[in-house]
Every structure is written in structure tokens, then in C-alpha cells.
Write the C-alpha cells for this entry.
Amino acid sequence: MPDLLPELTQQLFNGLSLGAIYALIAIGYTMVYGIIGMINFAHGEIYMVGAYVGLVTLAAIGAQGGLPAPLVVAAMLAVAAAVTGVYGYAIERLAYRPVRGAPRLVALISAIGMSIFLQNWVALGQGARDMAVPALVPGAVQLDLGSDFHVTLPYSRLAIIALTVVLMAALTLYIRHSRLGRASRACSQDMRMAGLLGIDTGRIVSFTFVLGAVLAAVGGVLIAVAIGKLNPFIGFIAGIKAFTAAVLGGIGSIPGAMLGGVLLGLAETFAAAYVSSQYKDIVAFLLLVLILLVRPTGLLGKPETEKV
Amino acid sequence: MGRLGHALLAALLTAVVVAPVFGLRLVREGAATLLEPHWRPVATAAAAVFAFHLARPWLARAAGRMRLPQLPALPAGGRRSAALLLAALALAWPFFGSRSQVDIATLVLIYVMLGLGLNIVVGFAGLLDLGFVGFYAVGAYTYALLYHWAGWGFWQALPLAGAMSALFGFLLGFPVLRLRGDYLAIVTLGFGEIIRLLLTNLGGLTGGPDGIAGIPKPTVFGMEMARRASAGGGTTFHEFMGWAFDSRDMVVYLYLMALLLALATLFVSSRLIRMPIGRAWEALREDEIACRSLGLDPTRIKLSAFTLGAMFAGFGGAFFAARQGLVNPESFTFIESALILSIVVLGGMGSQLGVVLAAAVLTVLPELAREFAEYRMLLFGLAMVLMMMWRPQGLLPMKRPHVELDP
């Protein structure tokens, strides 16, 4: 089979770029869970809002005309990250902080309500139908691996992988070495103790939500540019998948979220290519169920002990 | 930063949040996407938040003085008579309500059935099930498929629909019930979606996205409720009774059947909670570790709640299929699960009268406020958040039978 290698390379590439997006969203889930032990169900909607803000920015710049594409994308990313960060902050303050300390299910239901609210908020403002996103970064690299089948690597997807790698590296360094990063690690180990030692825990929680929202917004803008359309309901399924990625890697662990995102992206792409494209959404759900049954702590997670 | 600074900051953040969604609307013109500025909503929202923040200390004082009107606290006996009164009212309803009112009431009763079923899982056993709609779908499709492939009638299919959903609940619950609360929620959500995706993709069996149509309505003791019998030689109900045919009869009949099913669900679940198994559900909800140390088997107890809840969803589903006449996967999305869950939450987890009340409120309000239809889901999400903040115990919180000692 001479075509096997290029085809595999192509699928690997597609899976990686999809997985990079999942990883970006999964970070938000895993960080919030690590700090306040809550599943932020509305996180997928944050990603959707990010994509919309990106498109609004694009439309605003488009009216001025003729800027180079990388600059336009950078502006979309910056504005989307800023606005979506505010969304993350506001959601935590308005919907989650008042129910902190209540049973887990109360916070989860509040988050589900927030998710429904945000979907319809955007649907009401910007319309519920599909919006087209113009192709900003057309073109692709063609790889010739010595067969008839040429591997196509679109620039937009290469940019996703590159940007994700850079952001992940920056995030890892920031969490490891900065003052705020150290404080947030302390909070995820023991929130009360960290508070007693003079860390403003409320600020750390806000910081976590903002950071998660910013990364999700980047994912939203990048995927909108790569795929070329969006609607107010893309956040639900993407959110579930990113959550699956976070659980797969071990929820609470940042490297785990990255690993989980990439693995899920690959699994989904290969299943779509070699099993059936109709069942690719089922793959994510089945994977989620299987991991939770076989290894609830995920690949890189630490086991959680139950205290009386 | 003073109060003014805070208010300004909050107003600014509000503007940032509202502007890209309501302030700058995306419009398509040919191939180009343009923006259409609408600054009014942004300014209004920012001004409202600004005023609210300035007035906050004053509002807090006013709220402290003003006592929120308490919901009338019904004594234990009062609840029972309220329930009886409600049942009598429901029974009399079709004889003075209009046709569309009876139809809406039927819908309310379907949600009462589903709410009571989910109440067993979420309210009694404390297991957050986000995929309840999957069992509803299994019930609906069981009847639809049995009719489509084997020509079964509603009454033959009804018990099997319940049994099939219960079996699904059992098989799916078995592996996942070891999981902790929020993981369980997400896994059940996954199951609900898997069921829906399977129904969509197994086109040969289930009709795919189009579903199955032409499902017959229930018969009355073997007699059809139609103008003419479909098969030759059959007697229709109105011929048997010697009435003129009236299509309203079918609506009333469906309503009465829904009422019967809902009352049966109410009766069974209120008996269950008084049985040892029901006590075990509640004990497990309150403290799993204590239960284990007393020798209760958590998995078995949870599984029974999960299975029973699923069974009621299956009955509801079969009835839904008969009433609609068609089923397709679109009716069984996550939003439906969220709606049933919010019925349970709004009513007060574990409170059966509360579930009935909440089902009525959440079904009738959108019908009354049709001009606000586009805001419906928005308000619905908002209500869920607010409810969790201000009254997580629901409208009519559950009361346990208890004895108070005089001091």
C-alpha cells in the first residue's frame, strides 16, 4: 500500500490541529476544576462567544480595508481574548461566586443555566443562523511523500498548531514561575490554607476564570477562521468534547489537558476516517464514558481521596 | 476606589459584555459581512448597572427592612388536601376547558410524569442525571418501532416501553453509579447524547433524522377513536357509544389518559419514598459513607432509583409518541433534559407537589407569553441561575414526616 503513509500523515495532521483546539478549551475546564472543584458547564459557550467577538472584530476591520491577514487575525485574537476575559470574570462573579460553598450540584445547575443563557443571549443579538467567516488565510503547503496522494497542510491549521504550542509553553512557564501562578497552584492544593497565608483567593479564582476564557477565545477565533462558519450553538458539543479531553488527561492537571486534547482530536479524526464520519461525535462520548469507568483520575491525574 | 469608581467600572464591563453581541450586529451584504451599530441597548444596560451599583447600599437596607412574602406553609395534612383538590380540579378540567387548553394540560401532565420520574433519581437519590431524555427517547421509540415493524398497538407496547427504558437505565446505570456526583452528571449527559446520535444514524431501523410518522393514537378497549374504522369491520368508539363523531373526544381522551398515568406515577413514587428502599435513597443522598458503614449497598440502591426513574420516562415516552403521532431525534435533545431537570429543581428537589406545580408553571408560562417566545430560553437559563442563588431548595421544598418535641 504505497498511499498509506501520506494518508496517515494527513490524518495525523488533521487530528493534531483539531486536538490543539480541544486542548485550548480543556485548559479552562481543568484549571477551574483544579481550583474550586467545579465543572464550569458554560465554558463551551465562552469559546463560542470568543468566536463571535472575533468575527465582529473582523467585520469592523474589514470596513477600513486592506490590512495584511496576519495582522487582522492578531487583532481578532486580541479583541476576542479581552472581551471574553471580561465574560469569564463576569460569569464567575454573577453566577458562581454566590453559590460557592453550596453542594456541588447547585453550582453545576447554575452553570447549566448560564450555558443556556449565553447560547440564547448570542442567538438573540446576532441571530441563530450560521454566519460565514471569510477565509483569511487561504492556501496550503503541499507535501509530496512520493505517491499520488499529496498531503495538504492548510496555513490556517498550521497556525492553530503553532499558536497552541506557543500558548501552552507560555502558560506552563507562567504557572510555574510567576507570582500569580504560584499563588494559584497554592490555591489548588489548599484554598483555605492559601487564604490564611495572605493570598487573595477571590482574585485567584477570578484570574483562573479569565485565563481559561482567554484561551477558549483563542480556540474559538482560530477554529472559526479555519472552518469558515459559526453559530450560537457550537459551544455545547465543543465544550463536552473539551471536557472529555480534560478528564482523559486527568482533570486538574494542565499538561493532562494538553495531552487529552491531542489524543481526543486524533481519536476522533481517525474514527471519522476509518470507521464512519457519522459516528465521530459518538467516539468522544464513548471515550468519556470509558475513561471515567476505567480510570476516573485520567492519564496524568492524581487520585482524589475521600474524606469523611 | 470609592463607590462611584466601582459603579463606573461595573458599567464599563457591562458595556464590554453587551457591545459585541447587541451593540454591533453582524449583517451580510452580498459576500461581505458588515456591522450595524445599535448603541442604545449598550448604553441602557451600562446605565442600569451603574445606577444599580450606586443604589446598592440603599437597596440592601431596604431589602433588610422588607420581608419577602413567605409561601404559605402548608401543614402535612394541608398538603394532602391540596393534592386532592388539585386532582379533582384536573379531573374536571376537560369539561370546561377549551380544546387547546385541554391540549396544553395534556402536555403539562407529560412533564409531570417525567418530572416525577426524574425526581426519584435527582430528588430522592441525589443523583444528577443529565441524560434523562435518553430514557424518554427509548420509551417513545420502543412504541414507534414496535408499531412500525410489528404493528403493535399502544396498550401492548406501553408496558414494554417502560420495561425497555428500565432495562436501559439498569444497563447504563450499572457501570457508572460508582462515580462521584458531577462525573455522574456528565456521563449521563454522554449517554443521553449517544442514544440520540444512534437514533439519528441508524437510519435503516429508526428512520434517521426524519423519525417515524403515522403512529396511531391509543384505542379505547380495542375500539378506535376515529371517524371511520381503519380496518374493515371494526367498531369505532363513537359508534359504540351512539354519539356523533367529535374530534374533541380524542383530545379529552388523551388528556384523561395522561392524567391517569401521571396520577399512577405520583402514587407509586410517593409510596416508594415511604418504603425501606425510599428511605435508603434519602439516607444515601445525605451521607454515603455513613450508609456504607451501616451495611447498605450504595450501588444496588442507586441502581434501583436509576432504573425506576428510567421506567417512568419510558411510559412518558410511549405516551408522547402516541400523542404526537411521530417521533424524531429532534425531540430528545439536551435542552429537553435540562427542562425536565429544571422542573425538578424549581419545584424543590424531592418535593412531589412542587414538581407538579413547576411542570404547570414551566409549560403554561411559555404558552401564555407567546410574544416573548424568542426570550423564552434566555429567561429560562437566567431563572435556573437565579433559583440556585436565592432559593436552591425550590418553590415548595420537601418536608419530611417528623415529630417535634415541646421544649
